[in-house]
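Researcher: I'd like a structural prediction for the single chain below. Treat it as a standalone chain; there are no partners to consider.
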Amino acid sequence: MENLKSVIEALILASEAPLAMDKICLIMEGVERTEIKKNIEQLTAEYNERQGGIFLAEVAGGFQFRTRPEFSSWIKKLKGTKPASLSPAALETLAIVAYRQPLVKSEIESIRGVDVSAPLKGLLEKKLIRIVGRKDVPGKPIIYGTTKKFLEVFNLKDLSELPTLRELKQLNGPAETSPELSTP
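Model: Treating it as a single chain, here is the predicted structure.
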């Protein structure tokens, strides 16, 4: 296919969420995965070299066009709203879920030391966390985990890109990092 790169570019642009390689391969039946990958790499390089207002990012298990961070003030003016922010309680709850998932509400509350009903509700509404099932114990409590939208919002390919506790300590100094967030 002579215009393969243009077709891939159009598919990624038209997709409302990051477009997974598997989905591109399914749509582009008959085209080798390696050929698609090569074209995506070329597109990424072209957008990076151009240094325009957008770039092609691999995020949340797929590919998505994104605006460059240095233009965020202009985008905010266009949108006329400030981006939704998370309360400190919601951020702390989200961090615990991200690093310790899958886990139940009582485990989050044990770490935070306070009720997390409101932050959990808000994070569910914002689609940053989701219900992944129920724990097989009496009462069958709900198990929580992060979503693809969480990866998108925080510009992560997958959870392995979360900073380690050591990296967080180096950024914030040892006094500002909670030992409860260490991964098991």
